[in-house]
Design goal:
This protein is an alpha/beta fold. 51% of the residues lie in helices and 8% in strands. The protein has 28 helices and twelve strands. Helix 19 links the parallel strand 4 and strand 5. Helix 1 packs across helix 2 and helix 4 runs antiparallel to helix 5. It is globular, with a radius of gyration of 28 Å.
């Protein structure tokens, strides 16, 4: 069915007739080639004239200038339909629906289009994304297989199929497919090295048991050694493959197994460094530390990652500008806090996408010290950290695990959080900054946007908030949740749904349900999973809960700071490694140490007492609120950081 033809009445009234309009608009786009409205009007004039070829050509060009203009897609659909090409018409109607967030409608249009253009792998991927957005995960997988049947050598479809299989919790299947693709498809293009990396290093997001953790850990170690031994960096093919392996992802999920990762990190760091040095030798050599000239400032560069880097804002805010020049670099996905960092930067740079261009942009600034804020969270940041872009390179506890990279010299940490002999956990030299190592920002709790009834909770429920990322919940600690509910009859455990997928949440639910069943408890009675919340609603949720149950092995950081700001008691059991001790440091800073456990049994005792002893719980809440309100903005860590910078530069 042909869509309504574009109304060009206004164009005729403005230009007089379509012939005059065509001439004037052609002249205008020559003079102003980026004039989106002029291009749209020109395409509409061609459409009104029945010159569908020129209309289509114009609209396609317009998409290169603005790919989010619904009118362009709609008019393309009209033009193709008038050419009796209903399939392409449906495609562009599908594009409109997807841009406008109507994924169900987009699915229908894409399916209609793919009946005629079944080998369009990009649209197969878009169809899978629409199914994903509507929680139709099995159909998303089927969309990939449909595309692969028609384009059996498409590395592109295999890549995203594997990615989504992992996201949906089908870890073994993803690994098997990666191994098959590695053996059967040629290694070429953008995906060179990708499938070798996946087949060797893929790890689950959630585990069923401790035994499964051990199994996958050994798989990872063996795969890593196989990769290291199989790459021939003396050949161009080997160099490209190594670069692809280093760039596919990071070993992020390894760090959630709550084990000593130093030696594995060093082997992984060796692989990344060797791959990067072989491909970018001009940026892999050690750099001489330039001697400061009289009056010259020390140049510090910060590579910002996700919004977690916002915790470091105090380093810029309290910086001594008479002695330091601050450079901040980002990839364009730091928008939530960009304004504040830009305000306190002498130079604020959005980096290009290509590694060589990034290296050139950073190295030309001749930094003395370069700080990678989040090595391990982003593969590109990890790749860059495998090079030498400044004489001194550091990382921070925004991702609280050693980088293992021989190119990173110092790990900037916290004296309150690190254990006594923490040096044995790092390949870098450990620098303990005072207190948390950051200047935590206090916030005023906003007015409640939701109350208990919005979450199907009653006034008599004892609500325990369990809001950490799902990969932090290890199976060996599930029993603690069940035992709390066994003793606290009105207990309700609140879990936000996983941001990975509904099926990951389901796998976690099923694991918890088995555990609760073993204690003779009805999982459904005690555990509620709620949709992920925006910030204001999330803070409201914290304000109506009674207790925050920290995860063991990898504690809260940002979430714990939010919890104490809302006056929510935090039960934590600090572990051996920094990543399991962040809540410890925060509670020590606030001098509210009553809820810090010294064993799993003590964790249970504290959690149960908070649930049953209303008076004690309110004492903790009042102490939290008072101490939080009186917490000074203490920049002592910034002074120590700057002294450290000066000492390593001046010797």
């Amino acid at each position: 069915m042909v869509a309504n033809k574009v109304d060009i009445t206004d164009l005729i009234q403005y230009y007089g007739d379509l012939e005059a309009a065509s001439y004037q608009l052609q002249q205008l786009v020559e003079l102003e080639p980026n004039n989106i409205n002029a291009w749209l009007d020109l395409g509409n004039v061609y459409l009104g004239q029945g010159n569908y070829e020129k209309a289509i050509e114009t609209y396609l060009h317009l998409l290169t200038l603005d790919s989010f203009l619904p009118e362009t897609y709609y008019n393309l659909a009209v033009a193709y339909q008038y050419q009796d090409n209903a399939a392409l018409g449906d495609y562009y109607l599908g594009e409109i629906a997807r841009i406008q967030g109507d994924d169900h409608q987009a699915i229908n249009y894409y399916i209609s289009y793919l009946q005629w253009y079944s080998n369009d792998i990009i649209t197969c991927r878009k169809l899978a994304q629409c199914y994903d957005q509507t929680n139709q995960y099995q159909r998303a997988i089927q969309a990939y297989y449909y595309g692969i049947r028609n384009s059996p050598h498409s590395e592109y479809l295999y890549y995203y199929l594997i990615w989504d299989l992992r996201k949906y919790g089908y870890f073994a299947e993803a690994k098997v497919i990666a191994q098959q693709v590695e053996k059967t498809l040629p290694r070429s293009g953008a995906f060179t090295g990708t499938f070798q990396s996946v087949s060797a290093l893929l790890l689950p997001i959630v585990y069923e048991s401790e035994a499964e953790i051990d199994f996958w850990r050994q798989q990872f170690i063996q795969g890593l050694e196989q990769l290291i031994s199989s790459i021939d960096l003396a050949t161009e093919e080997g160099k490209i493959t190594a670069l692809g392996i280093a760039g596919w992802s990071t070993n992020f999920f390894l760090h959630y197994q709550n084990q000593q990762d130093l030696e594995i990190q060093k082997r992984y760091g060796y692989l990344v460094h060797q791959a990067m040095a072989a491909n970018f030798p001009q940026w892999s050599q050690s750099l001489d530390l330039p001697k400061l000239q009289p009056g010259e400032k020390i140049k510090i560069g910060y590579l910002l990652g996700s919004n977690i880097s916002s915790l470091l804002w105090g380093w810029l805010r309290y910086c001594d500008r008479s002695q330091f020049t601050i450079y901040c670099y980002h990839f364009g996905d730091f928008s939530d806090h960009q304004g504040r960092f830009q305000m306190y930067s002498d130079r604020f740079v959005k980096l290009p996408s290509e590694i060589s261009d990034i290296c050139q942009a950073i190295s030309q600034d001749n930094l003395h010290i370069f700080v990678f804020t989040e090595i391990g969270l982003n593969s590109k940041i990890t790749q860059l950290a495998g090079l030498k872009l400044a004489p001194i390179q550091c990382t921070t506890w925004m991702h609280p695990v050693t980088s293992g990279l021989p190119t990173v010299d110092y790990f900037l940490s916290s004296e309150l959080i690190e254990p006594t002999e923490a040096e044995i956990h790092y390949s870098e030299q450990l620098i303990r900054l005072p207190q948390l190592g950051i200047v935590p920002e206090k916030f005023h709790v906003p007015e409640l946007t939701k109350e208990r009834h919005n979450f199907n909770l009653s006034a008599t429920d004892i609500v325990y908030l369990c809001c950490q990322s799902i990969q932090k919940y290890l199976p060996q600690h599930d029993y603690l949740l069940a035992r709390i509910c066994q003793v606290v009859p009105d207990a309700k455990l609140i879990f936000p749904a996983s941001h990975w997928s509904g099926t990951i949440s389901d796998k976690f639910k099923q694991r918890l349900e088995r555990c609760f069943h073993s204690f003779g408890l009805d999982f459904q009675q005690y555990c509620y999973f709620i949709p992920r919340q925006g910030l204001e609603d999330f803070l409201s949720l914290m304000c109506i809960c009674d207790v925050f149950l920290d995860t063991i092995g990898w504690s809260g950081g940002l979430t714990t700071l939010d919890a104490v700001g809302c006056g929510l008691p935090v039960v934590t059991y600090p572990g051996e490694f920094f990543r399991g001790r962040q809540s410890l440091g925060i509670l020590q800073l606030l001098k509210v140490t009553e809820t810090i456990a010294n064993s799993e049994e003590n964790y249970l005792e504290i959690a149960i007492k908070l649930g049953l002893d209303h008076e004690w719980r309110w004492q903790i809440i009042e102490k939290l609120r008072t101490n939080y309100s009186q917490l000074p903005q203490n920049p002592s860590c910034v002074y120590a950081l700057e002294n450290f910078y000066k000492n390593i530069i001046t010797g």
